[in-house]
Amino acid sequence: MRGIIWAAALALAAGTAQAQDKPVVNAGTPAPDCTARVNYDRNADLPGYLDGDGICQPFLPLNQLIPTGRDASFYTADFTDAAIRQRWQSCKADEACAAAARKGAQGFARVETRETGTVGATGKIDPEGDVDLAAIRRPAFFGQEPYREPIAASDARAYTVEFTAPRDTLERTQLGKTGEIKLRGWYIRGDGIRSEDGTRQRALVVMNNGGGNEITAVDDPRSQLVTRDAASGKFTLSETPDGLTEEAGMRHWRGFAAAFHAAGFDVLVTDRRGNGISGGMNGFNTAEQANDMMREFDQLRAGEGLRALGAEGGTLTGRAAADAILQGADITAMPIVLMGYSRGSYAVAYAMQKNFVADCNRDMPGGTCGPALGRANIKGAILYGPNSGGLGTRVAGHDMIEAALREEFTTTYYPDGEVAAGVARWPALQIVKGTWDYVEGMEGAFASYQRATGLKDLFVFHGPHGLATQSDGNMALAGDRMARFARAAALGQGRLEGTTPPADLRDLVLSAPPVWDTNTGPAQQP
Fold first, then answer.
1. pLDDT-based confidence at 526, cuts 50/70/90?
2. How far is the C-alpha of 491 from the C-alpha of 355, rounded, in Å?
3. Do 509 and 59 touch, CB atoms closer than 8 A?
4. What is the pLDDT of residues 31-41, one digit of tens each?
C-alpha cells in the first residue's frame, strides 16, 4: 500500500512539474521560477526557487489547490469527520468510487511484516507471548561494529519497558481477538534539561515511530539501499533483504533519540501496536495509538500493567518498575513533548487534538467525543515528515479511503480537518520535513505553521520522506533542531533562539541548509 501511495504522489508531482501553464501553488504564494531534477524517491522534475548562487531549490507542491471561489478553510472545513462521512454516502453508491476507496482502505486494515530479529542471532521474540525482556536488544547492542550508534552511550540509563493496552476496535470487532496486548520499547532516563537559571529539570520526549519502523531493528550502514535502473534512469529502494539490515533508516531514528537524551531529556519510545516487538495485529489506527500514549503515562504513574528491565538486570513489575524508571520524577508534572515521524506524527497530532481540543474516537460509526483531556504538562509537539495539513492536502481520493476506514474497517488513520484546524490550540508546534517529502506538499506544511499560535518552528532540508537515504549531515541538523525546540517548549519559551521565521513559501524553501540527500545534488541553472 505504501508503494501505491508513493506512486500516486509521484505521478501528480511529475504532472505538475511538466504542466508549466498551470499554477502549482495557491494564489498569493510566490510562483516557482525554476525546475530541478530530484532522484529518489520522486524521480521527477520539481518546481523550485532560484537561490543567490543560481541553484534551483526544488520542492514538492500541494496535491490539491484551493478551488475557485473558496479560501484556505477548504483544507479544514471540507475534510472534517462529518464532511467525509457525508461524501462517503454518495461514494459508496457509485461502484467505481466505492471499489477504489475500499481497496485503498484494505491496505490499512492488514497485518504488517515484522523485521526485528531477522538478521543475526538476537532480538527476535514472540510479540503476542510472555516475553523475557532480556531477549530484547538494548541501546548497547547498537554500539558494536559496524553500527557504532550514539544511542549506545545511554544504555546505563535505559530500561527495556513493557506496557499493557487493550486491542483496537478492528481486532475486537472484525478479527475476533480478545484480551490485552503489550507495547514494548525503551525508557531512557536523562540528566534533566538546563533551565534558564542554570538548574536542571526532568522533562520527557515521547517518540512515535514511522510506518513499519521498529526501534530495535538493525540498520547496517554498509547496506546499498538505492539502485539506479540503467534503462529508465530511475532510482529505487531495494525491497530485497540483504542479510545486513532489518529496517533501513533506524540508525537515524535512534540518532534522534540520542540527541534528545544528550540534551538532558528522558526519552520514551515503544514500537506501535502491530509492529516490531509490540503485540497486536494492526498498526494503522493512529487515534488509538494516541490513546496508547495516555495509557503509558498512567502506567508510569501508578505502575499497573508495567514491567521494566534495567542495565543491572532483574525485571521489575508494577509500582516498583515505575519508581525505578522515574527515580522520583512526577510523570503528571514533568514537561512532556510528543514527537512522531510519518505515521507516528499522525498519532501525535491525534494526541494533541485529544488533549487540547476534544477527545474524539472516530473508528466507529457515530463515534463519541468528550471534553479535552487537559493534561497541562504536555507542552508541545514535534512532527517529522507529517501530514500536518490533514486530508485536504493529500492526493484527491484519500478522503474517501479514510471515510471507508472509519465506516467499514473501524480504523482512524489520516488526520482530518478538525485535527488540522486544532493546531491553533496547541501550545507549541515544530514541523520537520524534506523538501520533496511525498506525504504533503510544502505549502501545506507552511499553512499549518501559520495556523499555529504558540511557540512554532518549521525546519526543512533537501531530502525525501523516508529516513533510509538521508544524509548524515541533515539528520544531525534535524536532531539538534528538534532537541533545541523540545527544550524551548518544555520551558515554556515563546520563540526558538537562533531561528528566523519564514515570510512565505520561497523563504521557507530557500532556508534549507546546503546539505543534500545522498542520491540528489544541487542543480546549477544555465
1. low
2. 19
3. yes
4. 999 999 999 99
Class of residue 331 by CB neighbours under 10 A (exposed 0-12, middle 13-18, buried 19+) = buried
Q: Which residues are bridge partners to 408 per DSSP?
A: none
Residue 445 placed within a domain: yes
Which residues are 365's β-sheet partners? none
In a domain, 32, yes or no: no
Closest CA to 277 of 168, 163, 412: 163
The count of domains in the chain is 1
pLDDT tops 80 at residue 525: no
Q: Are 470 and 521 in contact (CB under 8 A)?
A: no
Q: In angstroms, what CA-CA distances link 161 with 121, 155, 165, 268, 324?
A: 21, 13, 13, 9, 11
Q: How many CA atoms lie within 13 A of 476 on its CB side?
A: 7
Do the Cβ atoms of 243 and 264 come closer than 8 Å? no
Q: Are 522 and 55 in contact (CB under 8 A)?
A: yes
Beta bridge partners of 102: none
How far apart are the C-alpha atoms of 104 and 399, rounded to whole Å? Answer: 11
Contact 517, 463 (CB under 8 A): yes
Written as one string, the DSSP assignment of 406-421 is: HHHS----S--HHHHH
* In a domain? residue 246: yes
State how far the Cα of 489 lies from the Cα of 26, in Å rounded to an integer.
31
Give the residues across from 308 on adjacent strands. Answer: 161, 316
d(CA 109, CA 174): 10
What is the 8-class DSSP label of residue 400? H
> What pTM was estimated for this model as a whole?
0.95
CATH code: domain of residue 501 = 3.40.50.1820
Closest CA to 460 of 524, 506, 523, 522: 506
pLDDT of 416 strictly over 90: yes
What would the mean pLDDT of 273-298 be, rounded to a whole number? 97
Decide: 142 and 151 in contact? Cβ < 8 Å. yes
Alpha helices in 129-268 (DSSP H): 169-173, 250-262
- How far is it, in rounded angstroms, from Cα 220 to Cα 436? 25
Cite the beta strand spans of 455-526 per DSSP E. 455-461, 523-524
* Distance (Å, whole) CA 47 – CA 36: 7
Check if the beta carbon of residue 28 is closer than 8 Å to that of residue 79. no
Domain annotation covers residue 30: no
Positive or negative, the CA dihedral 109, 113, 116, 122 is positive
Q: How do residues 351-375 score in pLDDT, each as one tens digit?
A: 999 999 999 999 877 778 999 999 9
Q: Which domain holds residue 181?
A: 73-511
- Residue 34 near residue 51, CB atoms below 8 Å: no
Q: Residues 55, 25: contact at Cβ < 8 Å?
A: no
